[in-house]
Every structure is written in C-alpha cells, then in structure tokens.
C-alpha cells in the first residue's frame, strides 16, 4: 500500500482524536472488579487514564466500554467523552470507536488509541508522539527498546518453564500506547483483520498487515500497563512521584 505525505485535505488541518478500549474484564488481576475501575490515589484507573488524554490538542475522546458496564457512571471526569459499546476483542472495541468518529472526523485525522490500564503515561510523551509524526503519512507508537537479555521459553514435562533459546534483542522494542494512525488507514486495517478472521494484539500489527511501517517513538519506562495486582503498587509510586503532596 503506497501513501502520499500530502494527506491533508484542502480545507483544514487534521484534528487529533483519542480512543480508549475499556471493555475488558482484567481476568489476570484476580479481582471481581474490572481492572480499569480499581482505584489508584482515590479514583479509578480509567479516570486517571482519561485525564492524561485531556489535552487541548485532542479534539475528542471515545471510550469503548461493555454494554452493561455498571461502573462507568462512578467516574467523575473533567471533560465530556463519547461512550460506545465495546466488543469481544480489543480491535472490535477500537472499530466501534472509529465508527463513532467517522460521523464527525475527517479520513485524514489522527486517532490515538490508548490502553485503559495505562494511567501513568506522561503527557509530554503524548505530545512528542503527535509532534514528531505530524507530517507522517501513516503514524506510529510509543515504544521502549528492549534492554534485557531475551529468552524463548518451552514447557517442560515437570510443569516448569525452561529456556529453549536466547533471542537476539537487537532491534527489539516493547510496544506501548498511545498508538497513533490516520483514521482511514486504521479503519481499513482493522476491517481487514475482522474480515479475514485474524487476531491482532495492537493497532500497529493491523497496520503492518497492510504492508506499512509504523514509526517507533521512544517513551518513558513509567508508562506501564496494569496487568497484575503487583502493578498497582508500582503505578502508585509513579503517580505519587509526580504529585508528592498527594
């Protein structure tokens, strides 16, 4: 798929929008409450996350939540958001968000997709992503170069996990979010994944299936994704370090 750098239409400059897929149940947290609604510093994780996206440069935020979500109304947000129903998989939720945006956004507008469980992302990193990719025809994502030695694992007969090989870490990066792409390109990529019955774990992978190459923008390592219960304590430390009075 070939793209031109001249993606702006003749009437306006692209706007920036955000989509937060938040329909998951967080099964690995061992908690009856979905992880995006667990509390950090007295408020839900999802509320922290949405507040990080509350930037003047972002025109609107779409949140994809479960249809019968009983927790959504507990949020107290400083901005208005568009709520849509989420889907079974992450990309279903993002597609639903894109459908809502297509009613008011332009095909060449930028869409930032951010994990609901990444409340520690630094706003300077979000702004860095937008600034460095402003003229790019496709987009990219925040990421971190792999620093540790990487091992590929196999399951042994004694139920232990053993090393099958050491993987060369040269050129390997940890994918973070936000991931930012042109609305029309991202919609086409995810629709293609859906039509082929494939599964992707992030938006960049769907873009790659179009033969395109997302740009990696280095972010801060404190942009952690809360997956396990111990991640809550680490997130508390990161947030407290930015707000020492809390």
Q: Which CATH first-tier class would you pick?
A: Alpha Beta
Strand percentage, roughly? 15-25%
* Largest sheet entry: 7 strands, mixed
Write the CATH architecture name. Answer: Alpha-Beta Complex
Can you give a write-up of this model?
There is one protein chain. The N and C termini lie far apart (49 Å). 34% of the residues are buried. The protein has a single domain (16-135, 177-214, 224-241), classed as Spore Coat Polysaccharide Biosynthesis Protein SpsA, Chain A. It is an alpha/beta fold and 246 residues long. The radius of gyration is 19 Å and the shape is globular. The strands form 3 sheets. A 7-stranded mixed β-sheet has the order 5-4-1-6-10-7-11, sandwiched between helices. Helix content is 26%, strand content 25%. The model is unreliable at 6-10 (pLDDT under 50).
Which terms would index this structure?
single chain; 246 residues; alpha/beta; Spore Coat Polysaccharide Biosynthesis Protein SpsA, Chain A; 7-stranded mixed β-sheet; two-stranded antiparallel sheet; 6 helices; 11 strands; 26% helix; 25% strand; globular
What topology emerges from the helices and strands here?
Layout: E1 16-22, E2 39-40, E3 43-44, H1 45-52, E4 58-65, E5 82-85, H2 90-101, E6 110-113, H3 123-132, E7 139-145, E8 150-155, E9 161-167, E10 173-182, H4 183-196, H5 203-208, E11 215-218, H6 229-242
Parallel strand pairs: 1-4, 1-6, 4-5, 7-11
Antiparallel strand pairs: 2-3, 6-10, 7-10, 8-9
Helix pairs in contact: 2-4
């Amino acid at each position: 798929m070939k793209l031109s750098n001249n993606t702006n239409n003749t009437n306006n400059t692209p706007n920036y929008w955000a989509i937060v897929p938040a329909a998951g149940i967080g099964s690995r947290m061992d908690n009856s409450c979905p992880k995006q609604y667990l509390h950090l510093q007295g408020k839900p994780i999802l509320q922290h996350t949405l507040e990080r996206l509350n930037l003047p440069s972002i025109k609107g935020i779409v949140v994809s939540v479960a249809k019968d979500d009983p927790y959504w109304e507990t949020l107290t947000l400083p901005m208005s958001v568009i709520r849509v129903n989420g889907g079974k998989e992450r990309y279903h939720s993002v597609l639903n968000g894109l459908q809502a945006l297509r009613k008011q956004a332009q095909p060449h507008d930028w869409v930032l997709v951010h994990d609901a469980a990444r409340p520690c992302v630094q706003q300077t990193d979000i702004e860095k992503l937008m600034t460095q990719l402003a003229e790019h025809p496709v987009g990219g994502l925040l990421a971190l170069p792999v620093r540790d030695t990487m091992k590929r694992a196999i399951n042994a007969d004694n139920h232990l996990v053993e090393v099958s090989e050491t993987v060369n870490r040269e050129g390997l990066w940890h994918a973070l979010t936000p991931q930012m792409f042109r609305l029309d390109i991202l919609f086409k990529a995810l629709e293609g994944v859906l039509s082929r019955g494939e599964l992707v774990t992030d938006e960049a992978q769907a873009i790659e299936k179009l033969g395109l190459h997302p740009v990696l923008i280095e972010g801060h390592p404190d942009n952690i994704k809360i997956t396990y219960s111990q991640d809550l304590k680490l997130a508390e430390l990161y947030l407290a370090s930015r707000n020492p009075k809390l």
